[in-house]
Amino acid sequence: MNNVVPVPSAGEPVIHASPPRPSYIPPFGVRTVIGCLGMLLAVHVAGFNEHVTEIGLTDIRGAMHIGYDEGTWLIAIYESFNIAAMAFTPWFYMTFSIYRFSIFVTAVMALLAIPAPFMPDVTSLCILRAFQGLMAGCLPPVLMTVMLKYLPPEIRVFGIGGYAMSATFGPNLGLPLEAFWFERVGWHWLYWEIIPLAALSIAMIAYGLPRDPMHFERFQKFNWLGLLVGLPAICALVIVLYQGDRLDWFRSPVITNLSFWGGAAFIVFVINEAYHPSPYFRVQYWRSRNIQASLLSLVGILAICAMMGEIPGIYLEAVRGYRPIQAAPVSLVVALPQLLMLPLIAAICNSRRVDCRYVLSGGMLCLAGAAWLGTWLTVDWVRDNFYALQVLQIFGQPMTVIPTLMLATLAMGPADGPFISGMVNMLKGLANAVAYAVFAALTRRREQYHSTMLLDHHGTHGLALQGMGDPVNRQLAATSPDSAHVARNTLQVFHTFVHEQSLVLALADIYFVLIWVCLGYAVMNLILPRRVYPPRAPSPNTPAR
């Protein structure tokens, strides 16, 4: 009988075996991989539901007879509920279990797409899209938790890379998908495209994810005040970002009231989260330098990527008259290589010899280089001129997103996962709203400035050019014997040229601003955060602490 346990000598550390894994977390294998891939697919489905309908909104408005102003509310309402849901999701999936919660929200999101093209008016469509956005917003936090919880430590960084696909691969694939569905199949499929993919993801989740238990006892400490105050507060602030520029910001009573009451409610929400025993996320995390740097960087980097992805489409559509199917290759140049670049960057960051802060700064330099090339934008550019910018973004986007997520998540312990997940994903969604608001404000103001300067120069120097003739008038003179009609057409062509030039100059100004923002983030992430190391499996003989 050898049941005698050796007693350690004085001063020798006590060594315990690693604690067993919970019974509902199976050993890592093919089944777990399928479940994680199903969760990843569900998040991409939610992203397609967001980006494809947003990009194809012009075609949807034409088919459903929706005005421009009403169409902007469709985007604002969907995004507000989408972002708000991310803050509260971790509490619900910890209560109802990841397995059941994921299947439920994915199924509801897909089912709501069926009646979307047949809504009788804008109000009913907005209500439907609000519920659909609420369901779609629940999925990204679940994906982050699944990747951090079910993957072994040795490949957890690759799980972070998979999560980063929702910020790099998915958004860049939105334009090609919109072009394919509208041009080849029909506008209804801008809503329905998610149904078959959602069914596949549900099957993969049902097969692969473990049946973790439900914890209804958590309702005894349910944070009712946080939900009742935080949900409308976040929705109000997101609507302000999406509608502020169109309604001229605080000159609009709608924006003023939403900002005041939404801001006041958000302050109450933050105070409640700081002291509630069962918060949705912990405000105290902001005391950490890594959390400060990574979350601020996450918002800025995703906003930069969104704006740099938006500019080529805006230019090609407004100046060159491209349809989405013609502009799709510009987005595909960035999207498809991500399938290779994301695992490659994850493998580099998974080495303990590599400091992810330097990878992040290198990625910011790539984005700054792309923005510098964009400052050479002219009205003569076509689709091919953007490929050099897009190639730099192929490297820059994964090199910035993956290290940022590592800095945000790997500095935390396992118990902190749900709390940091909600905060990271809410700010990730908020980055799109910030990018939308900043891009709209900068474009409008710089376009107005350049338009005013161009007209001023024309008025000042117009007489000096009279001896050179009017080539536009000469070309249009043969189209009509009515001189007044020709004069109106000439003036219209002139204003079209002024609009194109002012828009191009405004977009070049945005590229110039992005250069300095990228350089600022590159320096900040070399100074502010502390280094984190990729996780490794604990040794069974690790001393207890």
Automatic annotation (TrEMBL):
Keywords (A to Z) from UniProt: Membrane, Transmembrane, Transmembrane helix, Transport
Superkingdom classification of source: Bacteria
Pfam entry (one): MFS_1
Localization of this protein: Membrane
Primary localization class, coarse: membrane
Record InterPro entries: MFS, MFS_trans_sf
Keyword Cytoplasm: no
Any one GO MF annotation of this record: transmembrane transporter activity
GO cellular component, one term: membrane
UniProt topology in membrane: Multi-pass membrane protein
Descriptive protein name: Putative multidrug resistance protein
Source organism: Gluconacetobacter diazotrophicus (strain ATCC 49037 / DSM 5601 / CCUG 37298 / CIP 103539 / LMG 7603 / PAl5)
